[in-house]
Amino acid sequence: MRPNTAMPTDHPTSSSMEASSTSVFDDIESQVRSYCRNWPATFTTASGSTIQAEDGRSYLDFFAGAGALNYGHNHPVLLDALVDYLRSGGIVHALDMHTAPKREFLTTFRDRILRPRDLDYKVMFPGPTGTNSVESALKLARKVTGRQHILSFTNAFHGMTLGALSVTGNSMKRNGAGLPLTNSSKIPYDDYFSGATEDFLWLERVLGDSGSGVDKPAAIIVESVQGEGGLSAARPEWLRALSELCRAHGILLILDDVQAGCGRTGEFFSFEESGIVPDIVCLSKSISGFGLSMALTLIRPELDQWEPGEHNGTFRGQNTSFVTATAALNQFWADDEFAAGVRARAAELHAGLAQIASGYDGAVVKGRGFLTGIKFAEPSAASKIAAAAYERGLLVETSGPEDEVLKTMPALTISSDELVSGIDIIAAASAEVLGAPVYRGEGSDVRGSDVLDGDPRGEESK
Ligand SMILES: Cc1ncc(COP(=O)(O)O)c(C=O)c1O
């Protein structure tokens, strides 16, 4: 473009004026943008659990890139590995060709994650995001079984592409599809009927009744903790019963660990506590460790029946992601020390949230590990508290069909001091929105008291 010679040289150009404003986002970025509406700062740098904004403000991060930053922002060990690799002239993009970083990642993932857990999975690179992993899992389940139907759970969230949306619960997101979402049905998640109905009663009956008119599904897809759907957490015994039901009826079990995996619940896979071995596992978000895009689909070897190239995509071989993923596995998963620390700090987080919840009638702690929050009696309270927390310098989001749960998801590397600061901000924001807490005396209204004894599992998650 030719310079505008009519413009006085000391007059700020439109681009220099825009450099410090948010007008360009309003002008040309699509209406679909969302997080920036609640957190309108323009962010510049970040380290660990702290993010800096252009206006000089600093924010404590209880959001962690929606679970993509389990090891915090710019972890120095991962950053060094990445910068060294880039400076060495290492290949960045390679589709699914052989590369040294991919070899190292697969070797490390096998040796640090799969073998110590006695897990035998083939590793598929389905595309860069969680929804790519879910799509590949659904396709493979249909191909292997020759059946079309997939069952998923009330309030599930599995991604935004059409297959993943078809197994997602949220009506606003589903309506965005613009066409009927078929070949899937919803069944009740753990405790959907608050204990009034026996688990899997309906499913057991209809699957065993050739006159029920219910076709046998190819697969059931489940999250151990419903990260977007309101932080309900499945009990280990419920997951075991689900796994047994799938085995008994020849239905594949897909465990979507996109959000709850990579250590978020205090173990690498969120299903480890239950002892189940899913047929297919979806992983993404924090698998690269650095916020770089990457996803895996783990497949029981006998189910790996793809034709070469039957599922592919341009961005499945980001070597920068392999490099940081390998560094993260070596740094944090060589032994149980890191996971034990996560479990200890998760107990502190649950205790802090339980203390806040105990001051408000009807408030309960939900979730598991570092994927936890508070559901207040008034559904609109969580969004207001998140907004008040932002004003006080904390990034914390909401979850659930009505955004009724205040959702905390700090980096797993957060310090105890930072954790306490964040909990204090949530307490102050809650008091600002709901009024001063009222404690009703010993034992009467303290929820999640089990977690105060060190069990990082909230009351509603049983
Ligand atoms: C459980 C679960 N599955 C799938 C996805 C989709 O992942 P992505 O946003 O990377 O497509 C998400 C995203 O939040 C998720 O929480």
TrEMBL record:
It holds the Pfam family Aminotran_3. It comes from Promicromonospora kroppenstedtii. SUPFAM superfamilies: PLP-dependent transferases. PANTHER family: DIAMINOBUTYRATE--2-OXOGLUTARATE AMINOTRANSFERASE (PTHR43552), DIAMINOBUTYRATE--2-OXOGLUTARATE TRANSAMINASE (PTHR43552:SF2). InterPro entries: Aminotrans_3 (IPR005814), Aminotrans_3_PPA_site (IPR049704), Dat (IPR004637), Ectoine_EctB (IPR012773), PyrdxlP-dep_Trfase (IPR015424), PyrdxlP-dep_Trfase_major (IPR015421), PyrdxlP-dep_Trfase_small (IPR015422). It is an enzyme of class 2 (transferase). Its EC number is 2.6.1.76. Pathway: Amine and polyamine biosynthesis; ectoine biosynthesis; L-ectoine from L-aspartate 4-semialdehyde: step 1/3. Its cofactor is pyridoxal 5'-phosphate. This is Diaminobutyrate--2-oxoglutarate transaminase. It comes from the Bacteria. Gene3D superfamilies: Aspartate Aminotransferase, domain 1, Type I PLP-dependent aspartate aminotransferase-like (Major domain). Residues 1-22, 441-462 are annotated as: Disordered. Residues 442-462 have a biased composition (Basic and acidic residues). Belongs to the class-III pyridoxal-phosphate-dependent aminotransferase family. Keywords: Aminotransferase, Pyridoxal phosphate, Transferase. GO terms for molecular function: diaminobutyrate-2-oxoglutarate transaminase activity.
